[in-house]
Amino acid sequence: MQIQLLPGDLHQRLHLNFDRLEREDYAPANLFARDAAGGWPGDTVGRTILSWASLAAVTGRAPRYLSDVLARLPDELNERGYLGPVQEALDEQQLAGHGWLVSGLLEAYALLADPALLSMARRMVDGLFMQVRGKMADYPSNPADRIVAGEAAGTHVTTLAGWTISSDTGCVFIALEGLVKAHAIFQRAHEKELIDEMLASFRAMNLVGLSAQLHASLTATRQMLAYHDMERDAALLSHAEQVYGIFRNQAITENYANYNWFNRPTWTEPCAVVDAFIVALQLWHKTGKPSYLDDAHHIYYNALGYAQKPHGGFGLENCVGATSPDVKLPEGMDATMLCNHTYDVWWCCNMRGSVGLATAARWAMLHDRVDEVDRITIPFYFDADADMVLADGRWHIEQRTQYPVAGRTSVVLSPTGPAQRATLRMVIPGWVQPDSVVVALNGAEVQGYLTDGFVAITRLWQHGDRLDLTFSIVDRTEPVLLTSHVHDHHTHRHGPLIMGRTPEGHMKPLNDVITMSEEGARTDRRRILFW
Known about the structure:
This protein is an alpha+beta fold. It is built from 15 helices and 21 strands. The strands form five sheets. Strands 1-8-9-10-16-12-13 form a seven-stranded antiparallel β-sheet, with no helix packed on it. A five-stranded mixed β-sheet has the order 6-7-11-15-14, with no helix packed on it. Strands 17-18-19-20 form a four-stranded antiparallel β-sheet, with helices on one face. β8 and β9 form a beta hairpin. The radius of gyration is 23 Å and the shape is globular.
């Protein structure tokens, strides 16, 4: 399927982010220098390659620096084929960094079809990841062995039982980002053995008791679900739902972002926001439960939407609800970091945000077959055109929407050739009043089948058939997501949009921050919790 986004919220965000990642600080020399200095070999380079390839795939825009970075990469690798030093102890930050690097190389291979990228990725799996086999049982997972510390960028804290561990507790599991993706391509037995060993260790961990990092925990959960696609092990899906439930009940902020660590509402991290967004989509797709897709909408508009700044990069904020009724940049950090690093997290969040936005684009329209009937699903509403191949031929689909400001969306379906039978499903968010839903086909109202959070129409579609969907979006209040820190408060909502009151008394949606000046975005503060 090919999806072309038209100018609108997601289109603007993708290109603003692309622009940020083509500034001089991401040029090859600067990128490799930053990677080498950060204590996370492979992390900055890997995330950036993954970002460029993901953005290019959904926008059709050629990345400025990608080919030069890929050409330089082999000269930067050590004698075993990976970045950084060859070490006796297992360095969980080095393993995590190469989770992104292997993933980035494989994403670039999907874009460029260069077999040298496969070779580099395979060598990293064998040269670095396979050192972990048989050693996950020794990974320090006792809360007494972990030091509760760390700034916005994790650091090494100690070496224990053959492991050099990080303040980002659990970050070793980010290696699964590359390992599972590699196994999907290479299908080698030793990869499966290591994945099984790592996931067994992850499933045995007390994430809350360890104050594990949310980014690492949700990355492992994403990969558990990706591995479920291969293994069809119901226990993997069950545990993924359990981890997401722990996040949702104990570590979510009131604008659907996240604590950086379980039990530590110090600041949020857009990297984990992206992970939560993708996990919610994966769980919806696998279970059909509408609540997961509702979460994905709210995460996209309020957490990802507020984290992206006018320059296209992504920044941190306070854990609203746990620390304040206002959403704002985090307090209690070094003034220089507050001004620069937490506003523009160049080493990880700027790139991880790309993947979140690209995921939204890829999920704009979906196609599958159910009971031998093609099914087109629209789980989000964006202005977009799509070309897809169904069982009976090619289709062109045009979607135009006023969502989330208004509940009005039109879809024009144009199968080639004679009329073709298919089902069109369009999402009806959980907060919509069902009696406000109206479906019109070519101007005449028709009955749609409303189930599992979607209105569905199955028919023989003719070239140029137009379906108009409308539903009411009314302002409403919702109780707080977590009651562990605040009680008897609520948020104001307009559809999926959380509204925030500025110091001047204006109520504005959180996701409008990208329309502000840079200075306005840096100093922005809005109250979202009210009695």
